[in-house]
Amino acid sequence: MQILAIETSCDETSAAVVKDGREVLSNIVSTQIEFHKKYGGIVPEIAARKHIEVINPIIAEALDKAKTTFKKIDAVAVTYGPGLVGSLLIGLCAAKAIAYAADKPLIGINHLEGHIYANFLVQAPKFPFICLMVSGGHTMIVCVKDHGKYEIIGRTRDDAVGEAFDKVARFLGLGYPGGPIIDKLSKEGNPKAIEFTRPMLDDGFDFSFSGIKTAVVNYVNRNRTSKRPIVTENVADIAASFQQACVDVLVTKTLRAAQKKKVKTIALAGGVAANSLLRREFLAIPSHSLSSLLIPSLDLCTDNAAMIGAAAYYKFKKKQFADLDLKPVANLSL
Description:
five-stranded mixed β-sheet, about 325 residues, Nucleotidyltransferase, domain 5, transferase, 11 helices, TsaD, alpha/beta, 10 strands, ATPase_NBD, 2 domains, globular, tRNA N6-adenosine threonylcarbamoyltransferase
């Protein structure tokens, strides 16, 4: 079974062809980072326009690389939320047009569900398992009980962790996107140089990252002088200490959730799952606490259509198809 998948929830335009929910025949991604850098973040109107410019060539390239055609595919899958409405609309229009013209089933996919299923492209985990979903827009711990059956154990009450990375990087004048920049700079710093508070570390399973962001701002402001408008000599220490505080909270709460649910399989998902420290910390967990750890490859952590195709396969098997009037839902929940 071949599924053509389309993902345009934010600022990546992606199309992929996935076979039997596991084999990626093609996964083409066009990023817009260079267009948004000068604004320090994503501009929704620009994102939508860029999707329009590249969506058709990206789909054509995905089909060509997979050596298939519209006639040979079995279904068309597309992200319909959550995300930027303008961006989602471009992918939806393309997917519905293809499904109608080629007379193929349309499958609507939740973007968050797609991130979870990126792990199935690595190794199909046994149910139930705990998934830590970390990105620029979401931070949550999910117990995945079966295909399509999810229990959200904890979520952020304010900023997502990726959003906090972006805001701290912007405040320190490091650029955009903040996650990869802070990850790289942290390797030059001392993560124990500054003891930032770990918010809500011992309080349930929810997260709060706005406090860590504010702590960084307050630290820099306390050390400002007229001659030193920003603390440039230890910016690597600031980045490393901030990153360590965030990762400590993420790892601790995820392990606690796994223990509560008596589950020994943990999966990571989302763009922040590409963070090198987060990956190292999870890999260092002893086997008596964790029997199986799934971490997607770097290209499957960020937004991509292959993960949408993987999720769509299991919906196809249940004949969970969407109508051609499927609409984008910006705040779609899991």
